[in-house]
Structures are given as C-alpha cells and as structure tokens.
Give the backbone structure.
Amino acid sequence: MSSWIIRRVKDPSKYWEIMDVMKDAWGMDDYTEAVPAHLLKAIDDNGGVLRVAEVNGRIVGFVLGFPALKPNGSLYHYSHMVGVRRAYRGRGIALALKLAQREAVLAQGLDLIEWTYDPAQGLNAKFNFAKLGVVCRRYYPNYYGEMRDSINRGMISDRFKVEWWIKSERVKKRVNGELSPPSLEDVRGIADSVFETVVVDSCIRRIEKVKLDLDSEVLLVEIPGDINEMKRYSLDLANEWKLKLRSAFQEYFSRGYVAMEFVSAKVDGCRRNFYVLWKSPLDKILRGEVPWK
Ligand SMILES: CC(C)(COP(=O)(O)OP(=O)(O)OC[C@H]1O[C@@H](n2cnc3c(N)ncnc32)[C@H](O)[C@@H]1OP(=O)(O)O)[C@@H](O)C(=O)NCCC(=O)NCCS
C-alpha cells in the first residue's frame, strides 16, 4: 500500500482537489456545503494552517484551521475540518494531519487548538480523545441548525467544543504513546453510569434510565456503538439518544465535570462506547493525572 506525504498546497488548482475530498469524506451531494477554493487560499495565505496528505500526487486528506480570539483577547487556533477519503481511512493519515497541524500551531507560539464535533459519533470521539488527548467542558445545543451532508442530515446538530492543549504533558504523552487511554475494566469499578441502556435489536440499544443526580467523582456516559447504523435503523431512536446526551452533558458540565477520556470496547460481540467524566481541576488533567490505577 502506497505511503503518504503531508505538505502545504503549492499549486492553486489543488484547492479543488481538497473540495473533492470534502465531498467524499462528508458524503456531500455537491459543492454547496464545501469550503470554496478561494477561502482555502485566503486561510492558507493569512496565518491559517492548511495541510494535505498526498498519495502518488493525489490529495486524499486535509486539515484546515485558522487563528481565533477568545472574548478576553487571548489567541488560540480553531480547527474547522479534518477529513480523509473513505478509501484511505484507518491508516493513520488523519493522525498524521493533526500532528502536522499541532507542529504548525506550536511554531506560531500558541498552546490551544479547539474544534467542534458531534459527541454521538464514536469514531470521532475515539480519534479525538483516545488518540489526540482532547478534553471537553462545553456543550452547544443545535450548533449549526439544520445540516445537509449525508452524515448530519436529519440529525440534531448538537456539538462538543473540545480543547487540545498541545503543549500539555497529557497531550505530549498521549501522542508519544506514553499515556494510554483506560480500558473499560480500568474505569468500570470506580465510575457510576449516567445511563442505563437495554438492547432493542442485535447491537442497537436504547436508553432506559437517565441519572442526573449522581455525585461520584468519575462518571460514564454511554453513546451508541455506531450512531450512523442507529440512524439507518431509526432516526427517531438516534435523535432520542442525542437529546438525552444533551441533558446529561449540560447537567454534568455545569457541575464541573470534564470529559477527559473515551473508551470503546467489544461487549458480547457488540461495540459499546463510553465517555469518562472526571470532576477534577483542568490543570490536574493536563498534567496527565488520571483517577484510575
Ligand atoms: C475523522 C476522520 C478524519 C478520522 O480518520 P480515520 O482514518 O477514519 O481515523 P482512524 O481510523 O485513525 O481512527 C478512528 C478510530 O475509531 C475507531 N472507530 C471506528 N468506528 C467507531 C465507532 N463507531 N465507535 C468508536 N470507535 C470507532 C476505529 O477503529 C479507529 O480506532 P483504531 O485505530 O484503534 O482501530 C475520518 O473518519 C473522516 O474523514 N471522517 C469524516 C469527516 C469528519 O467527521 N471529520 C471530523 C470532524 S471535522
């Protein structure tokens, strides 16, 4: 299998190739939901970070972001998109793109990259938490209103806004392989579960009970093993689960819990996915401390 290279775009016609990757990665019908070539060029030329992954001269993935300002005037980097063509996933290309983004943003002297994603998407959750070491303390209901690409069509567009503290011990150790994510066994014994879930049909589950009055230090919040499969099975069931996630995250984030890990495990032949929430000061988490042994 051919290897890839990560680089900046040199030839302006290549911006169109990036739009083709967007169409493929997000399942867009046409270019109306894509970031246009002229805006890619504007971001690339003005302090943004745009990197592409090429295989045999063809762009198969990209990462895109730009400098951003907090209300208090502090600078951070906002990462708007990372996408890899479907045929090239599962090879580490997305991780290589994010690591290249991290290097570029570190070189600009910044220490924080933020982005939003749908917290019900297990693949993205595993990628963001388990591979990159992000944390999350903020939940935005209906962030984009109605979306039209095939991943998001018909679904409530609630989003996590995650923080990737790229200079922290936690992130350094996670990307160097020195700080592994926990197993389900590591956390099950010390955590309470916010949802009780039951099987509806083979690996499809629904939430039977939501507990919003827990106060143990570590909590588990389950998401579907595969929300896209659940959506095909029943859009109502998928959106019902998302609304319960909304109430759980809004409640526990407002009480000082931080989403700090994500565990994906095969249980009785089905994938089960859990966020780990820890009621802990952020600096302790960023030092790489964890609540399990
Ligand atoms: C997000 C994206 C860039 C990641 O690239 P990728 O090559 O698919 O990522 P990886 O295979 O390295 O990592 C995904 C991990 O999630 C796991 N995974 C897959 N489906 C999963 C699910 N339903 N639940 C939990 N984990 C899942 C994979 O097994 C893999 O873990 P592993 O390496 O331990 O096996 C790519 O999937 C993509 O382009 N998606 C569409 C666009 C998008 O959502 N972009 C991000 C938001 S801006």
Q: What stands out?
A: The first strand starts at residue 5 and ends at 7. Residues 25-26, 81-84, 89-90, 92-95, 117, 122-124, 126-127, 225-226, 264, 271, 273 surround coenzyme A (CB under 6 Å). The CA atoms of residues 43 and 66 lie 7 Å apart. The chain has a mean pLDDT of 96.
